[in-house]
């Protein structure tokens, strides 16, 4: 078994672009998911009638179905309803749908973890609802949710590999195309593994450290 | 269209059922193997052996850093080349999902065992229990309440992730659905049905996990 280093070198520019696409899809999806989650969490905190039930329904639907089915629905079924989307748009839409639900859950759990006395004291000194949200709930819930938020960001970044199924030229799709074109299977699998390790391992190590540290010293103790 | 759509689903039911059986077989096998592997991982982690912990840590981080879909391709394309071993795509999916699931369940078990008071282990050892007795009769039963709800959540993730098997060529419920779409162009109906298929399997599990968690953390 010989390793074709010259071939690997020749694919490097394409893989650099692919890493760019992975990061682009991942970061955009993280941003839009966070936006969706913030809106949802606000609706839940204020117990907005009807809308809060709608948010709960959305969270359950998105969290209990596979990303791949959601992706195929948006990419293959929506055109039949007259909505045509590109692979890239389908990827962002679907990952926002999924990520928004996960992050809503994270923020909701964070808000619930803020002690009730905090809210009562806020109200008793006459804060308005928005002031309560802005100065009491969000700062504390934000800190409490930080590890879970971070874990979900990494999760979303890794989930971008699934969008290779609708021909978004990210790292996995690029690997598959090169294997199909040149049969350099093990060179390309090695490059893919290396990219994953370089891209995701530092993040996941950081997360493991954060989680184990928090396990030792819970907040406030 | 509504009646013809339902009719299509009705006549496709045997075909979809076969695909669903593949999807569910992959999920159940992976869940069973993940559970066994995960408990083993958790127990091995709490033995406090330095080289064993390093080994398990490498295993965990590899499955955390490399996405499941990438693992599927690595094993599906890589095993035949590197080891001359050609695994059918079905078993390839079971293998990857089990290894990944075991790392996830394993972290849950490790955390639950870690959270038990130290005195439990010391008391068990001091009355002369062997290692297996200590874990089988003292530590694992106590950790059970803490680890069950998050483990059920891992199960739902395994079921959802089993959908990726279609991408390495397993003729699962999604593939069957796609074949029906190729024939009938009913993409909205079929993908809608697939969406609901997964939802009605995963939702009861997530709901059960939430109920158990609420009940057992208050007690």
Explain what you see.
- The complex is a heterodimer of chains A (221) and B (219).
- The model of chain A is unreliable at 217-221 (pLDDT under 50).
- Helix content of chain A is 80%, strand content 0%.
- Chain A is mainly alpha-helical and 221 residues long.
- In chain A, helix 4 (87-113) crosses helix 6 (129-159).
- Chain A is built from eight helices and no strands.
- With 219 residues, chain B is mainly α.
- Chain B has one domain (17-218): MetI-like fold (Orthogonal Bundle).
- In chain B, 85% of the residues lie in helices and 0% in strands.
- Chain B has eight helices and no strands.
- In chain B, helix 1 (2-45) runs antiparallel to helix 6 (131-161) and helix 1 (2-45) packs antiparallel against helix 7 (173-184).
- The longest helix of chain B has 44 residues, at 2-45.
- The model of chain B has no long low-confidence stretch (mean pLDDT 93).
- Chain A binds chain B through residues 1, 60-61, 63-70, 72-73, 76-77, 79-81, 158-159, 161-162, 164-165, 172, 175-176, 179, 185-186, 189, 192-193, 196-197, 200-201, 203-205, 207-208, 215, and chain B through 60-61, 64-67, 69-70, 73-74, 77-78, 81-82, 111, 114, 156, 160-161, 163-164, 166-167, 174, 181, 185, 187-188, 190-192, 194-195, 198-199, 202-203, 206.
